[in-house]
Specification:
332 residues; alpha+beta; Aminopeptidase; 11-stranded mixed beta sheet; 10 helices; 27% strand
Length: 332
């Protein structure tokens, strides 16, 4: 039987995926398993199958030292199409990392519309080449271990376990308040899109509303609302993914605060509450991208570490923003 197109695509992807896997496996806390290798192969094969894909390889097809590719995602996680790029090299091969920056930059010249690149922090040296074509850091993807983060948070700050000292109520988000919660998210990110440029898009909000509606009906969900009297002024959500290939049980956090409660220490208590629950449920890692100063400062205190940099065309914030809150993040 002749090999299928899918077989040929996976064969083409395999050496690229092996290179990508080696870099990912260097990160603290990840699981270097056959399942993780298979997941990486699937991800690279899917990228090669994107419309309008362009691929550059340093070395040979069977023994690459580095690769860069980009293609069109017709309906992305935020609800709209975008140009997706990815690339990898041996982090210890300075020549290959430098080539990676140039190759990604050359491909980026062919972008149209929104452009997104998840760049491993091992490839910091590629940033100047990308900056030369208008691509820069939009957010930093941080990883933390819930138990360690909670212990460090309590040791350094010991925030109250609730918000009554601030005249606020923290409790589960109920279905009747779902509309107010979505409206709060729209209002906050429309006013400050630098924290989530897609945050007020109707397509994205529709997906958030659907996810929150489902969580409202799930008594085990970690979806909370903050009220000041009858007014909803905050939403906090920790979503758990079971048995992910790289991390095992993994969580992401989504925090939205009305300006009236920002800067009052709310985030300290919210993190305590969510981390206590993630710890009790045996979550191995909480992972997420941010550009928020408060989150980055807390990340350092809680022992979180950077995994990658989210890059996009014409980012809202300068590199200095990230360097000031996470010193050394972009160094060497």
């Amino acid at each position: 039987m002749a090999p299928s197109a899918t077989d040929a695509l996976r064969a083409r992807a395999r050496p690229l995926a092996a290179l990508r896997h080696r870099t990912l496996a260097r990160h603290r806390g990840v699981r270097d398993t056959a399942e993780a290798r298979a997941w990486t192969l699937d991800a690279v094969a899917a990228a090669l199958a994107l419309p309008h894909v362009r691929l550059r390889v340093l070395g040979t097809a069977t023994a690459p030292r580095a690769f860069a590719l980009q293609g069109l995602v017709r309906e992305g996680w935020h609800g709209r199409s975008y140009v997706s790029a990815l690339g990898d090299a041996d982090p210890d091969d300075a020549e290959a990392v430098a080539w990676l920056g140039r190759a990604l930059a050359e491909l980026a010249l062919h972008r149209s519309g929104e452009y997104l690149l998840d760049l491993d922090v091992a490839y910091r040296a590629a940033l100047p080449a990308l900056a030369s074509v208008g691509v820069g850091v939009d957010s930093v993807v941080l990883v933390g271990e819930p138990r360690e983060a909670l212990e460090r948070l309590v040791a350094h700050r010991d925030p109250p376990p609730d918000l009554r000292h601030l005249g606020l109520q923290l409790g589960r988000l109920r279905r009747p308040h779902l509309g107010a919660a979505v409206a709060l998210r729209r209002r906050v990110f429309a006013a400050e899109p630098q924290w989530a440029w897609f945050g007020a898009w109707p397509e994205h909000l529709a997906r958030i509303e659907a996810a929150w509606a489902e969580a409202c009906e799930d008594r085990a969900s970690l979806l909370y609302a903050i009220h000041a009297g009858d007014q909803l002024v905050g939403v906090c959500h920790a979503s758990i993914q079971e048995d992910t290939p790289w991390w095992g049980r993994k969580a992401g956090m989504d925090l939205v605060f009305d300006p009236s409660i920002q800067g009052r220490g709310v985030i300290w208590t919210v993190y305590r509450v969510l981390l206590e629950r993630l710890t009790r449920r045996g979550v191995a890692a909480f992972v997420g991208g941010t550009a928020q100063p408060a989150v980055m400062r807390l990340a350092a205190l809680m022992g979180r570490w950077p995994r990658s940099l989210n890059l996009r065309s014409q980012p809202s914030l300068p590199l200095a923003h990230f360097q000031s809150h996470l010193p050394g993040i972009l160094a060497g």
